[in-house]
Write a structure and sequence with these properties.
It contains seven helices and seven strands. The chain is an alpha/beta fold.
């Protein structure tokens, strides 16, 4: 069985898509951000950003203990690509579409701007490729696409129906 990181900038659709894929593939989904909060898998609180700073060693130990051995597991979080997994799928979304999504979730304007810039600069994609290599990373654009269509691509990546692909999305025009 495989353990796949479903990662991307906040607001790209990870949670929604992970649930759709779980149903289609009878896969387990681990919502890492919930676990970090609920199982105290953090080193400190970042008061300025109103967020938790994950203890990645503790998170990895938790994931290792929670991953079932009899089915595919999707580890969903903007941090999932930093873990030891079999592959990483990075969801991408144009910053101009991402910003209203984040505002709807109640993010501060500072957080909205920071995440939009991070998305334009390919920060999470670059980290995923550095950690796992181009042969284990799939990049999927969610801009103007339904969650079902994105879930189809994710399922195809998990099932090995599409080859790993990076560098297919470019939002540098945003900057």
């Amino acid at each position: 069985m495989r353990t796949i990181a479903l990662t991307g900038t906040p607001g790209t659709g990870k949670t929604t898509v992970s649930e759709l894929v779980a149903e289609r593939l009878d896969a387990e989904v681990l919502h890492l951000n919930d676990a970090i909060r609920e199982a105290d898998l953090f080193a400190e609180r970042d008061v300025e950003r109103d967020s938790l700073v994950a203890d990645l060693d503790a998170v990895q130990s938790w994931v290792d203990a929670e991953v079932p051995t009899d089915r595919t597991t999707v580890v969903e979080s903007h941090l999932a690509h930093l873990l030891d997994v079999d592959g990483a799928v990075v969801l991408r979304c144009h910053p101009e579409e991402l910003k209203p999504r984040l505002r709807e979730r109640g993010e501060s304007e500072g957080s909205v701007a920071e995440n939009a810039e991070s998305e334009a600069l390919d920060v999470i994609l670059a980290e995923a490729v550095e950690r796992h290599g181009e042969d284990s990373v799939w990049e999927i654009d969610t801009t103007d696409r339904s969650p079902e269509a994105v879930a189809d691509d994710l399922a195809a990546a998990i099932d090995g129906e599409i080859e790993p692909r990076v560098g297919v999305v470019d939002f540098i025009d945003y900057l």
